[in-house]
Specification:
Mean pLDDT: 79
Strand content: 15-25%
Radius of gyration: 29 Å
Distance between the termini: 16 Å
Length: 406
């Protein structure tokens, strides 16, 4: 889908440039100097103007985004007036002839219903008003008409009809990208909710049972564990931001491990090697904790948690790797068949504990790109090593921030 949209943008922009040049070459003297031919100059101006108009439209079609982009869209067409509408109202009118707003909405009924552009004459009692024709070009996303771009001019013009249609298609592409961004945001938010829902009921039950066991014998220890449990759950169910820092994520992991150690005692050996310079790195919320929980499950519980001799070593390292932070979580547990792991990550199967891995892998790929998926090394009886690469800087990714388009 993204490749098709990018290709459509590339195909449309030269047509926009040609329309811009044809509309402007008679409107003002040419003084291009050494900037190239008229077509090259028009192409540059068109690309620059389109670049400035795109960011507001990537937030969808609203009064605010229409207001921010309308003047630049009118500059692309070189018209006396331009308006953007949704299906019921004029969102913004840029240029002269604002008294035509009501008439424009009356004329839009047909084009909005059919999804086809039209050139329509306008009635006007004002002799000084230059607006006599309206070129209507519907704005569509996934074959649904969301509104219209209306270019107003003194006379009917075949060039304007063509150019307005191309600009409307370009705007529609931006609105489609906005729709994809919103879908992507909803998907990642849903995955975070799903991950929260996965916080094992057994872990919660076992943690509370361990805390209860200390209430009479060691009240102070019970109080400390209860605070650890409260801090862990508070972090896991927080509602502000899709991103956190590596420091905060490791702090939550520390609370989690305190509760696990209370249950398993010295059967769990955890070592941490954390480079201080990577602690401020931002990363998706609840990204590393599920990996540590997976290490505990397959490292200790997979060996037989009820056995006093069952022991597990877990190593957590975070290293500075230039433009990235390299996080490795390794256990010496039961491991997993690589083919079974591949099916889990592909979403083909979802055994207990597998959803967390696929969820984290999916979110890392969505935020940073496919090259930043989890790298997992494992085999039956050989433990598991999970490596996550985290860019130190990624557009739209910052601690406490909401998900934004890259």
């Amino acid at each position: 889908m993204s490749g098709f949209v990018a290709g459509l943008c590339v195909a449309i922009l030269p047509l926009l440039a040609a329309g811009f040049w044809l509309g402007r070459r008679t409107a003002r003297p040419q003084s291009l100097g050494d900037l190239g031919t008229p077509v090259e100059h028009a192409t540059f101006e068109t690309l620059h103007t389109a670049t400035l108009a795109a960011p507001p439209l990537r937030a969808g079609l609203t009064e605010e985004t229409a207001r921010k982009s309308a003047r630049r869209l009118r500059s692309l067409l070189g018209t006396d007036a331009l308006c953007l509408t949704d299906r019921t109202d004029v969102l913004v009118w840029d240029g002269v002839g604002q008294h035509h707003r009501t008439q424009i909405m009356e004329l839009l009924a047909g084009p909005l219903e059919s999804g086809r552009g039209e050139a329509l004459p306008l009635d006007c009692d004002s002799p000084d008003c230059p607006v006599r024709w309206a070129v209507v070009a519907p704005l569509t996303v996934d074959d649904r008409v969301h509104g219209a771009l209306v270019a107003c001019a003194p006379r009917e013009s075949a060039v304007l009809v063509r150019a307005a249609g191309e600009v409307a298609r370009w705007v529609s592409v931006q609105l489609e990208l906005a729709d994809l961004d919103r879908s992507r945001t909803r998907l990642i938010e849903a995955e975070i909710k799903a991950l929260r829902a996965q916080i094992s009921p057994h872990f919660i039950f076992n943690s509370l049972a361990v805390i209860a066991s200390f209430v009479r014998t060691d009240p102070e220890r019970a109080r400390e564990l209860l605070l650890e449990f409260a801090d862990f759950t508070r972090y896991s169910f927080r509602r502000h931001g899709d991103f956190t820092t590596l420091a905060d994520e490791l702090h939550a992991i520390d609370h989690y491990l305190a509760l696990v150690r209370a249950r398993f005692g010295d059967r769990l050996d955890v070592t941490l090697q954390i480079a201080p310079e990577v602690l401020p790195v931002a990363l998706p919320f609840l990204c590393l904790q599920p990996l540590v929980e997976n290490a505990v499950k397959h490292g200790l519980e997979g060996k037989g948690a009820s056995s006093a001799s069952a022991k597990c070593r877990i190593g957590i390292t975070a290293q500075d790797a230039g433009a990235e932070a390299l996080v490795v979580i390794e256990d010496d547990g039961a491991g997993m068949d690589p083919d079974a792991l591949r099916r889990i990550l592909a979403g083909e199967v979802s055994p207990s504990g597998g959803i967390g891995l696929s969820n984290v892998d999916d979110r890392l790929r969505q935020v940073y790109g496919d090259e930043y998926g989890l790298v997992i090394e494992t085999a039956p009886g050989a433990g598991m090593k999970i490596t996550a690469r985290l860019p130190k800087y990624q557009p739209g990714v910052h601690s406490g921030g909401r998900l934004t388009a890259p």
